[in-house]
């Protein structure tokens, strides 16, 4: 393939682009399209934080691609000044897989929602994660179908009354982080739309991860499911009801950082330092790089109101990526057999000549 | 190999059709393939029809477990695997029962008499042994204890009885080689190569093959053997090829010519999977194959790869094409090159997965929401798959459009000699990425082809957004403008229609004007051509035209249709091309439609054409 056919990778940047790269700011990633989410929607913040972190990855604008499915989240690529592809419902990971496999030089983001990723696109989520396709998948979770005006989603709480479930949904919700871990995701994290600094840090870490990164962003739909996460994300309560994970640090939370998570047998429990002889030494220490997924899985299960809601990077491990493995097989084939020779291929096997 | 010590008379034949039939574990496909290769390398024209069950191993000896392989080989140019076999090789009672109806009276029947046990006869409902009850009188029967003779030939080898029994198909093959004066050499070489690591198995198969040959030579059962001289095919270098093989090679050739690597996203499905298997062996050509989690992911990944500048391809059969429909609509909307292979099989639903049909034409034409035109091409013979694959890729890349390539189960598994083209003779496929920033708009169009520019990620200054929402003409921005939508629908339609100026005109074979035109498409080419030639030699006023481009049609199709008093359209569906022709050209076409999961017989088409010529109503 010629250079023009594939475009330039990061390494192939012209001097001009290299200069541009070092000067890129949030503004460079703002497209000329008018943003059309509802006023007050959590998506605005996610967009802003995404634009803010984009200059930090060392990729020129033309080497970044945003791919989305259907739903309110699906509009995000229109607002990013990069390459963007607004695809069909649930299928964004499939296009991202094909693109990344054939163009390893690109940085590929997938923007999706709880309905898009976990309902109609559930199969593709599982398989892109297990393959460790090198994509950054940001899932906006507002526990509702917004663009279709308010039906229950796979993360809606049991019994939730919506337009489609006037008597309460009878479908048990699923935990997105548990799904991602079960699918062998190598990077799993959670953040909140309005916690801008934390969201930026989380997106940063996801962007720097090599392999599939799954980020659940707890997002507020102020029209159809207002306040879905407020009971623990509000400024007044967040320190007491959320657990901000940091690698190598004890899992402490609370205004006075005097509460923590301890393991009793196989079960986590919330304890207070100083009560019943509990010391900091009893508190679990976060290890996001642990190869075994047990701690991560436990963290993916605990939630409000019985537990503080964990946010931050739950798991971050290394495994060869899908495009690396595919490229290695192509290179091995060329090393073994030489680059393809069409004439020889067509004449393979038993042939004969008619005079 | 010398032929006979016994000096037997040799009879020259123009054409012979053999059907090998046995249990699906009996190796009938392999036996047929080996005979085909040998006949092809000898210089005969060949045409084959593998016919096997979807079950991998149905219960041994049962009717659903019967697997067959028919090969016709000739000293003449032939187009079909033959209507009826001259020789039926039946390895068990089930094979006899399910194939005997096709054997004409006087036909030769070679049976493995060892398999005609009470148990096996009961399994398929024979109250009496047909070998002894006189019911096979109309045929020339050769009842041979193949299992016993074969086991004797293999005595002394360290093998289980079961392993020994598995080689009996090569005994039958050896016998057929003797009967038709064929050398065993290609098969012996194949055995050596195939069983390199298993000396005993190699030895066993070689002994079986030679024992069958020697049996023909020494027994007094056969009084003649037969010679089918090489055919006078056009000069050139040849190989034997199946439709699926030719399809894979054609796309690799197109990829090489266009300088665009193939990305092939596919989900396993009969009868398309072999293309995936074959392409996965071409990684040194830069071919990336991806076994997706489902049909939708398969096409989605292909669209993603095309977006990045590759030749994105996906393949399936009818049920999988149905699943891909929504994504195909996306590819139409975003106007990216994409090849969708549909190896059709009998339906609806799961239908008969290993049997052929041509009933996805309307699905691929119209099976999507809204007016959503795609180009559609259809190869007509196994060898033609190569040329049409190149065409499908050429059109997709030049016009920035999805192209559906309609093959079918008969083309996919059937084989014929293929005159290998030189690489230089293949069409150049020039395709450029947009790189100039000046005046770039994602939906600005080439004035001739109406193709939009291919601006792939990685191109500085051309960052833009595309998607499934309606586009504003030229800018590609999201638009709900009523007039814009109308304009874009017309443009998408016009782009596909314009391809008609870039494909060959339809040529009818036969008189330029006349009483009857037989119009076909796809794998029915051979049967129709043979039938029309037969009627032409009887002096009837009849011509044949075959459509390889179904959307758009060749631009002279209307003229061709109007030069004949009547138009007969045989199809292995219930009248899909007929519906298109009637709607488009207001021609009162007569349909001949049979959906039996099998190719047409020549005789069926002859009867249908005679009826049409005589103005009779078809049944």
Question: Gist?
Answer:
The complex is a heterodimer of chains A (355) and B (619). Chain A is of the alpha/beta class.
Domains of chain B (count): 3
Helix content of chain A: 25-40%
SS field, number of helical segments of chain B? 20
Which architecture of the largest domain in chain B would the CATH scheme give at its second level? 3-Layer(aba) Sandwich
- Largest interface: chains, residues each: A-B, 71 and 78 residues
Mean pLDDT of chain A: 94
Question: What does the largest sheet of chain A look like?
Answer: 8 strands, mixed
Strand order of the largest sheet of chain A: 2-1-3-4-6-5-11-7
Radius of gyration of chain A: 23 Å
Total tally of structural domains of chain A: 1
Number of strands of chain B: 22
- Terminal CA distance of chain A: 38 Å
Level-1 CATH class name of the largest domain in chain B = Alpha Beta
Oligomer: heterodimer
Structural Rg of chain B: 27 Å
H and E string of chain A: HHHEHEHEHHEHEHEHHEEEEHEHHE
CATH superfamily of chain A: Thiamin diphosphate (ThDP)-binding fold, Pyr/PP domains
SSE class of chain A? alpha/beta
Description of the molecule:
The complex is a heterodimer of chains A (355) and B (619). Chain A has 355 residues and is an alpha/beta fold. In chain A, helix 4 links the parallel strand 1 and strand 2. In chain A, helix 3 crosses helix 9 and helix 6 crosses helix 7. Chain A has a single domain, classed as 3-Layer(aba) Sandwich (Rossmann fold), CATH 3.40.50. Chain B has 619 residues and is of the alpha/beta class. Chain B has 3 domains: 218 residues, Pyruvate-ferredoxin Oxidoreductase, domain 3; 187 residues, Thiamin diphosphate (ThDP)-binding fold, Pyr/PP domains (Rossmann fold, 3-Layer(aba) Sandwich), CATH 3.40.50.970; 100 residues, Rossmann fold, CATH 3.40.50.920. Chain B has a 7-stranded mixed sheet, with helices on both faces. Chain B has a 6-stranded mixed sheet with strand order 3-4-2-5-6-7, with helices on both faces. The mean pLDDT of chain B is 95. At the A-B interface, helix 1, strand 1, strand 2, helix 5 and helix 7 of A face helix 1, strand 9, helix 9, helix 11 and helix 12 of B.
């Amino acid at each position: 393939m010629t250079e023009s056919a594939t475009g330039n990778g990061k390494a192939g940047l012209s001097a001009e682009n290299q200069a541009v790269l070092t000067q890129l700011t949030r503004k460079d990633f703002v497209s000329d399209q008018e943003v059309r989410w509802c006023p007050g929607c959590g998506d605005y913040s996610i967009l802003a934080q995404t634009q803010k972190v984009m200059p930090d990855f060392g990729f020129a604008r033309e080497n970044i691609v945003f791919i989305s499915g259907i739903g309110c989240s699906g509009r995000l690529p229109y607002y990013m000044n990069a390459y963007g592809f607004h695809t069909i419902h649930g299928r964004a990971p499939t296009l991202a897989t094909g693109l990344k496999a054939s163009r390893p030089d690109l940085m590929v983001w997938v923007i999706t929602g709880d309905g898009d990723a976990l309902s109609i696109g559930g199969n593709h989520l599982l398989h892109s994660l297990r393959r460790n396709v090198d994509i950054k998948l940001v899932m906006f979770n507002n526990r509702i179908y917004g663009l279709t005006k308010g039906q229950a989603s796979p993360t809606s709480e049991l019994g939730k009354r919506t337009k489609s479930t006037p008597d309460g949904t009878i479908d048990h919700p699923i935990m997105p982080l548990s799904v991602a871990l079960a699918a062998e995701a190598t990077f799993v994290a959670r953040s909140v739309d309005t916690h801008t600094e934390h969201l930026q840090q989380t997106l940063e870490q996801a962007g720097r991860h090599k392999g599939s990164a799954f980020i659940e962003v707890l997002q507020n739909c102020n029209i159809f499911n207002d306040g879905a996460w407020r009971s623990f994300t509000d400024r007044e309560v967040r320190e007491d009801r959320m657990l901000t994970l940091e690698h190598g640090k004890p899992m402490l939370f609370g205004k006075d950082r005097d509460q923590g998570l301890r393991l009793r047998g196989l079960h986590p429990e919330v304890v207070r330092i100083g009560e019943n002889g509990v010391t900091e030494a009893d508190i679990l220490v976060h290890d996001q790089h642990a190869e075994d997924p047990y701690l991560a899985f436990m963290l993916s299960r605990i939630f409000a109101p019985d537990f503080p809601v964990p946010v931050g990077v739950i798991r971050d491990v290394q495994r060869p990526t899908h495009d690396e493995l595919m490229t290695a097989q192509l290179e091995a084939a060329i090393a073994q057999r030489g680059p393809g020779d069409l004439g020889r291929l067509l004449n393979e096997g038993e042939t004969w000549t008619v005079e | 190999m010398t032929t006979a010590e016994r000096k037997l008379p040799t009879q020259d034949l123009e054409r012979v059709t053999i059907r090998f039939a046995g249990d699906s574990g009996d190796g009938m496909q392999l036996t047929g393939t080996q005979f085909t290769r040998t006949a092809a390398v000898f210089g005969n024209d060949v045409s084959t029809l593998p016919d096997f069950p979807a079950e991998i191993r149905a219960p041994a000896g049962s009717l659903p477990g019967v697997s067959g392989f028919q090969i016709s080989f000739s000293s003449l140019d032939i187009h079909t695997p033959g209507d009826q076999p001259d020789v039926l090789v039946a390895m068990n009672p089930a094979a006899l029962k399910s194939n005997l109806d096709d054997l004409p009276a006087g036909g030769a029947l070679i049976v493995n008499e060892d398999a005609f046990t009470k148990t096996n006869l009961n399994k398929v409902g024979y109250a009496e042994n047909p070998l002894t009850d006189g019911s096979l009188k109309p045929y020339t029967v050769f009842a041979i204890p193949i299992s016993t003779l074969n086991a004797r030939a293999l005595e002394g080898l360290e093998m289980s009885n079961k392993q020994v029994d598995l080689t009996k198909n090569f005994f039958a093959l050896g016998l057929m080689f003797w009967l038709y004066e064929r050398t065993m050499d290609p098969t012996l070489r194949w055995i050596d190569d195939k069983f390199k690591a298993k000396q005993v198995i190699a030895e066993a198969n070689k002994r079986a093959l030679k024992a069958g040959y020697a049996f023909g030579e020494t027994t007094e059962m056969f009084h003649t053997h037969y010679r089918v001289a090489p055919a006078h095919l056009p000069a050139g270098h040849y190989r034997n090829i199946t439709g699926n093989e030719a399809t894979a090679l054609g796309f690799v050739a197109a990829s090489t010519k266009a300088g665009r690597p193939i990305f092939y996203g596919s989900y396993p499905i009969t009868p398309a999977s072999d293309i995936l298997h074959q392409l996965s062996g071409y990684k040194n050509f830069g071919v990336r194959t991806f076994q997706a989690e489902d049909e939708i992911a398969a096409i989605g990944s292909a669209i993603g790869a095309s977006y990045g500048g590759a030749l994105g391809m996906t393949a399936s059969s009818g049920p999988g094409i149905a699943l891909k429909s929504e994504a195909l609509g996306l590819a139409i909307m975003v106007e990216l090159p994409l090849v969708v292979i549909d190896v059709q099989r009998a339906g609806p639903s799961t239908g008969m997965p290993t049997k052929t049909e041509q009933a996805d034409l309307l699905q691929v034409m119209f099976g999507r929401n809204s007016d959503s035109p795609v180009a559609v091409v259809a190869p007509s013979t196994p060898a033609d798959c190569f040329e049409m694959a190149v065409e499908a890729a050429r059109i997709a890349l030049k016009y920035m459009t999805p192209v559906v390539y309609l093959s079918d189960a008969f083309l996919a598994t059937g084989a014929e000699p293929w005159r290998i083209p030189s690489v230089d003779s293949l069409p150049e496929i020039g395709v450029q990425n947009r790189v100039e920033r000046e005046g770039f708009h994602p939906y600005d169009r080439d004035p001739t082809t109406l193709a939009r520019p291919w601006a792939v990620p990685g191109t500085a200054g051309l960052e833009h957004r595309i998607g499934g929402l309606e586009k504003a003409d030229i800018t590609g921005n999201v638009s709900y403008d009523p007039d814009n939508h109308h304009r874009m629908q017309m443009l998408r339609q016009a782009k596909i229609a314009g391809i008609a100026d870039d494909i060959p005109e339809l040529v009818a074979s036969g008189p330029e004007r006349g009483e009857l035109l037989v119009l076909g498409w796809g794998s029915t080419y051979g049967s129709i051509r043979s039938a029309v030639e037969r009627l032409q030699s009887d002096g009837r006023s009849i011509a044949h035209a075959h459509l390889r481009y179904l959307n758009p049609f060749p631009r002279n199709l209307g003229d061709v249709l109007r030069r004949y008093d009547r138009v007969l359209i045989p199809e292995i569906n219930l009248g899909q091309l007929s519906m298109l022709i009637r709607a488009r050209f207001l021609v009162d076409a007569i349909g001949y439609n049979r959906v039996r999961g099998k190719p047409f017989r020549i005789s069926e088409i002859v009867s249908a054409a005679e009826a049409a010529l005589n103005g009779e109503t078809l049944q």
